[in-house]
Amino acid sequence: MAADKSSAIRRSVEIPSGRISYLDQGSGPVALFVHGVLLNSYLWRHQLAGLSDIRRCIAVDLLVHGDTEIAPDQDVSVTANAKMLKEFLDVLKIDQVDLVGNDSGGGIAQIFAALNPERVRSLTLTDCDTHDNWPPEAFKPFLAMAAAGGLSGALNAMLSDKQVYRSAGALGPAYEHPEQVSDDTIEKYLRPLVRSEQRTRDLQRFLAAFDNSHTVAIREQLKGLHAPTLVVWGTDDVYFDLKWSHWLADNIPSTRRRVEFKDARIFFPEERWQEFNQELRAHWQTSQ
């Protein structure tokens, strides 16, 4: 059970959607990790380090996020991000993946799986956009602020004073222990979003494109999904209520296990990585 001792390698690939940046570690069947809004591939560092003995673990930076670069007119909706994942896998000549998604990335993972079921060896969904449950009520003030032109100021405020990021009015509620989120982690997540005015404008477009019609539209395809599915949910998530883990399990008949992490919140892949890695390892082993 010892992890691959090598470090994740930062790579990039040119596809029609842009120059996609990603972290790559390990060898074997590919596991593809998809993060959510305001974060990037760094979210999955513990999964890459801890599971690269049994998988080639790849964590992408979504459109607008991390080191991924796009054209100013690139569609950045969740469906466009699902299309990007297909282009990404096509260029890398990867036929199938163990797909893992969190937050917005979970919604994108569902869309990808619904549209490309033959590409999904197994599916793991954590607290995420599901059907019509998004954007979450708790996130709507942030969306309104961004729509009013305050996004750049908010991002720079969180970078200038990291306590703002950890506060109840910002990203604090996403963590079980926000006080333990390091300054370096905050820098890694937010600094790319203010690297240029265009990047911040692209993020504003990403937020403005939030529309749950994209996930509502795939409900029937989810019901026909055959990929073995694992649903893992934090019980104290202020954004996505626990009931949505039941909704996913009920609407994806191939769900083999639904797990609750008591008191965990949406970013538990970062905080509860040991427990989560155990669940992923077991899920992949039984899905072979």
CATH superfamily: Alpha/Beta hydrolase fold, catalytic domain
What is the terminal-to-terminal distance? Answer: 17 Å
Are there runs of 5+ residues with pLDDT below 50, and where? none
Query: What top-tier CATH class fits best?
Result: Alpha Beta
- How does the overall form come out from the CA principal axes? globular
Quickly give the structural class: alpha/beta
Rounded mean pLDDT score: 97
Strand content: 15-25%
Describe the structure.
By secondary structure, the protein is α/β, with parallel strands linked by helices. The chain contains 13 helices and 8 strands. It has helices at 45-51, 78-91, 104-115, 140-147, 151-160, 162-166, 183-190, 197-208, 213-216, 219-223, 243-251, 268-271, 273-287, and strands spanning 9-15, 18-25, 30-34, 56-60, 97-103, 120-128, 229-234, 255-261. It has an 8-stranded mixed β-sheet with strand order 1-2-4-3-5-6-7-8, sandwiched between helices. A hairpin with a 2-residue loop joins strand 1 (9-15) and strand 2. The chain starts with 8 loop residues before the first strand and ends with a helix.
List the helices and strands and how they pair.
Elements: E1 9-15, E2 18-25, E3 30-34, H1 45-51, E4 56-60, H2 78-91, E5 97-103, H3 104-115, E6 120-128, H4 140-147, H5 151-160, H6 162-166, H7 183-190, H8 197-208, H9 213-216, H10 219-223, E7 229-234, H11 243-251, E8 255-261, H12 268-271, H13 273-287
Parallel strand pairs: 3-4, 3-5, 5-6, 6-7, 7-8
Antiparallel strand pairs: 1-2, 2-4
